[in-house]
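Q&A FORM
Asked by: J.P.
Topic: structure of Putative ubiquitin activating enzyme-1

PROVIDED:
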Amino acid sequence: QGMTELNGCAPLKISVLGPYTFSIGDTSKFGDYITGGIVTQVKMSKTVSFKPLEVAEKEPEFLTSDFAKFDHPATLHVAFKALYQYREANGGNLPRPWNEEDAQKFLQLCKSIDGNVLDNLILTFAKICSGNTCPLDAAMGGLVAQEVLKACSGKFTPIYQWLYYDAIECLPDNGVEEADAQPIGSRYDSQIAIFGKKFQEKIGDIKYFIVGAGAIGCELIKNFAMIGAGVHQSMYPKDRFKFSVISNHVPRTRQRKSLIIIVKYKNRIKILKLFSLAMLSPNRNYDQILRKTFMANQ
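REPLIED BY: S.T.
REPLY: Here is the structure written out as tokens.
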């Protein structure tokens, strides 16, 4: 009641004064406020204009993804610009994995573009830029997909101009020997180029048992498979898999859970089925069910 000028008025810009209070500005020309009232939040549209690529490349604006590395984006911006020039000058080849000579050559190229780059970051970039790792690809793919949805829907604020992300803290403190980063004809060669063959062998020997295949669980299982985690291990001795053993050890709950079973059978890896843990029963012959399921999918 009172202050009727606010009823049906155009959206007003507010100032937040506290957790439970805000101001709508000057109300001296309005009538007296008595009591009550309902406030509706209105999100105003915003037009975002982007610079042309030629201008943005020369006058970059960065979105900071890690405030502990606030000085990295500018150096990485120069590194990616130099990478295209390096490829053109070297027949389409990138710097060799963990090769000091190529890294120094790449550093000099970057310094010819901008003398204020971080030397150590450029050298690390040069030594691993020919490699690739699936979990980081998945993260960047998800980010790009979000930006596409923003562009199509017109909702949420898009990334403005440039975003550079690095995870160099994942690298060994003392780096990797060049001989250890050479390709071996494996599907994991692009990952070996970053972390080395010794590291790849270590993650191939790890043992994990994953229960729970929801949205995050499925993504985790996929990333484990793509990086080669546990590929040297069998699930049980003598490659003998008994589903009934799992049903006896998985705790029962009223909440419906899910479980993805990955079985090694005759030296082949296959995802057999998505089971609900609520349906597990020790009285059922799961070994026979799994065997029939696997053979039916050959």
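FOLLOW-UP: Residues 260 and 274 are 5 Å apart (CA to CA).
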